[in-house]
Every structure is written in C-alpha cells, then in structure tokens.
Design brief:
By secondary structure, the protein is mostly helical. The protein contains six helices and no strands.
Length: 163
C-alpha cells in the first residue's frame, strides 16, 4: 500500500516565492547598525573630521582662557584684564574659524600627512633597533677571545666599537 503524494500544481512551481529579495542586505544593515551602536556606547561618539576637531579645540581653549583669573595683574586690574583676554580670544577665534570653514580638506590632509610621518619615523626607529639588537644577540661573538683586537697584546683589555 503505497501512498501517493499529490502532484504539485504546475502553477505553484512557476510562481516565485514570496520572500524578501534583499533579506541578506537587510540583515547585514541591521547587524552593522547594532555594532555601531554598541561601539558608540562603549567608546563614545567617533571623532569628526580634522577641521571639526580643530574647531572643538579652539572653542575649548577659548573657554578656558576666558575663564581664567588674571594672577599677574592683581585684584585691581582683574575685571579689565579678563575683558581684554576675552576680546583677544574672540578676535583669534574670529580669524581662525573662517579659515577652517573654507578649507576643511586641508586639515584632513595635514592630519593624514602627520600620520604618515609618524609611521615613517616608527619604521626607521624599529629598523635601527633591530640592527642594534642583532649586533648584540650574535651568539658567536660572546666568546671573549673573539672580541679582542688581533693587533693588541695579551692584556685583559678588549676592543669597544663605538659605532
């Protein structure tokens, strides 16, 4: 007694499935958004462009300078000196901010150039350190007889290379 399955309806085979065509893209976007939110919670907001960070620095320095009391001029000239400092800070801010606004890409390029210079310096230092440590790590050079200058006598001294 064999049971026969009903034959599939030919109209169902030709019909496309009712699924989300971009399900993978949607799932990836949701995962990415969740990961970004997790990183923001853990590390705070990501840094902005170099121009935005420079603006924040200028604002912070201006606020700190404006709020400092004037210990050099004493109590008599305090309010006048603070007003003068605020004025100078505002003038400096007014001069710097338009430059930052007009040329934000320049500051990004300067930041990238600084990173490249730092990487080049780090590479040079690591190469030099490798040469220094390779010279002292030579196991064949550890014997005292090998370190003596062959032109010298049989005394206890040894040659020191100052390079």
């Amino acid at each position: 007694m064999s049971e026969e399955r009903p034959a599939p309806d030919p109209s169902e085979e030709d019909r496309p499935r009712a699924t989300d065509a971009d399900a993978w893209a949607t799932a990836c976007a949701e995962d990415l958004a969740a990961e970004q939110a997790r990183r923001r919670d853990r590390h705070g907001p990501p840094p902005g462009s170099a121009a935005e960070e420079l603006k924040k620095l200028v604002d912070t320095v201006a606020d700190k300078l404006s709020g400092l009391p004037s210990p050099l001029l004493g109590g008599l000239a305090g309010p006048a000196a603070q007003h003068m400092v605020r004025q100078v800070v505002q003038q400096a801010k007014a001069a710097v901010e338009p430059v930052i606004d007009r040329n934000p890409d320049v500051f990004d390029h300067l930041a990238a150039a600084g990173s490249e210079l730092l990487a080049a310096y780090r590479s040079a230092v690591q190469a030099q350190e490798h040469r220094w440590t390779a010279r002292t790590a030579d196991p064949a050079g550890d014997a005292r007889g090998d370190r003596r200058d062959p032109g010298e006598g049989t005394g206890p001294g040894e040659r020191i290379d100052l390079d």
